[in-house]
What does this fold into?
Amino acid sequence: MTLIAELKRRKVFKVGAAYLVVAWLLIQVVSTVAPQLSLPEWAPRLITFVLLLGFPVALVLAWIFDNTPDGVRVDAAPVGNKRMYAIAAALAALAVGWYWKGRPERVDTGAEARTIAVLPFVNMSGDPDNEYFSDGISEEILNVLASTPELRVAARTSSFAFKGQAKEIPDIARELEVRMVLEGSVRRQGDRVRITAQLIDAQKGFHLWSQTYDRDLKDIFAIQDDIARAIGDELKVRIGGAMAQGASTAATGSVEAYDLYLRGLAQWQLRREQSLWDAAALFERSLAADPDYAPAHAGLALVFTVLDSYSARITTRESQLRARDHAEQALALDPASPEAFAALGNGAGKQGRRDTARRLYQRAIMLRPSFATAHQWQGTNLMVGGELEAGLASVQRAVELDPRSMVIGHNHGWALLALGREAEARGACERVLAFAPDYDGCLDILAFIALLRGELDVAEPLLQRYAAAMDLGKEPLVKELLEAFAGRGDRDVLARRLAASGWQASFERDSGVLLYAAETPAVLVALDRGELALDFLERLDGETGDEFAWAMVLPAIDPIRCDPRFVALVERRKIRDPHWQRVCAEKS
It folds into this structure.
């Protein structure tokens, strides 16, 4: 009798087939209910392993025992015993090998392993209006992780750029240049919240850790801290110290205050005129619910320190006064608020207090080493103060942390332009336009470069896209500007209007000015109106802001750089002209 015939006679094939069907069903059920039952990450894998080990056991039992009308009895096999036991042993060895080889490994503690991105948690509440809440939870966890010096955390703008995209985790990690990815979901129902989070090693494809939290909404801060600590345990870094500094002051007993704060954060991140005004209103409402809520004060400080650069509805003086007031209140309530220090640094820089701004940014970065905006603002502060190379290095660090940020990409392009590296500046902005084709900041830089190079056929479509993106009805100004550069229009009319304009004119609807104020002197020089460029700079010198300093670092204004009026402006502003030695030393 052959082995196959004996296997059929003893019903081993039938038992094996039935076992596999039942095991497969059990595995599917366990995989489905494990997250709902808050089972640990290793539980489904262990159950699968036990079922795999049970398969050769079931085959051996079917071989040994026979179910007869008189009951179960041992049936001695005439042939095949050794071969059957060998097959069973081989199957058991394969099961053990699968489990051992595929087990989640403890991640190494090198620098590469300590790079992480926090993806936006999925809103499972069934209400699209709760999207801000799940996004806010993700951002708060990201900020806690970003306060840990040993970690490099991808900034919010970049990690959130993948929201709603059907991309694989390894692909996202590759684009953000990180190894670890935190993803999860949020379900909010009334005053209850369920948060599921899991940490993935994108390089090896393993889930290192996962947990589900079912808590009252008032416990949200504790959940965020628990998630951050769990990640710290996996990556062997100490996160508790970073959280301890501000844990008591960053929390609020008011669910309404926290909810409004998260709504404000979502609007602040859009960085548009109306969204910034909306963010300010939401932060104000948050403070109405809890006047001592430090993050809401810090949020207002961030909004007002940039609002004058986006809206003509507020003066620089008022914008900066309000920013400083809220930053100081935030620090009085929470001395470890990096946002407040960054906002104060931005204000100091706009007032020309460069050294003060530098120290404030350094403090913000010390508190949150992965704070991309602080690195960005530190870079522009150094750059407009004349330290071009140091400024570029800081901005490039911001780009590494937040490669999907439009405004950081714009600043990167400007820093390269200030160093005369036009091709690289174009490349920096083309990279931004690849994922944000309507971003006016980079359309402006590319059009500006083309204008100064006399490439009017290149400049025209860029200027048209820029005017359309600004949405201020300025499309007719494109033709006027191109005609002036081509020598066919009335240069004097355009030049006098530009020289008389205010620094916020580019985002005023009826100003007759298309490009940013920092570019106006270079445009006037290119139109052979150097005296008017100096008039404009002298008038701009009375403004609180960086427009003069931004204009001064451009090589495009070299034709007026050695003029006594320009030199006097530089001395009065107490800044260093990084191009003077190159252009003017031989003439002096």
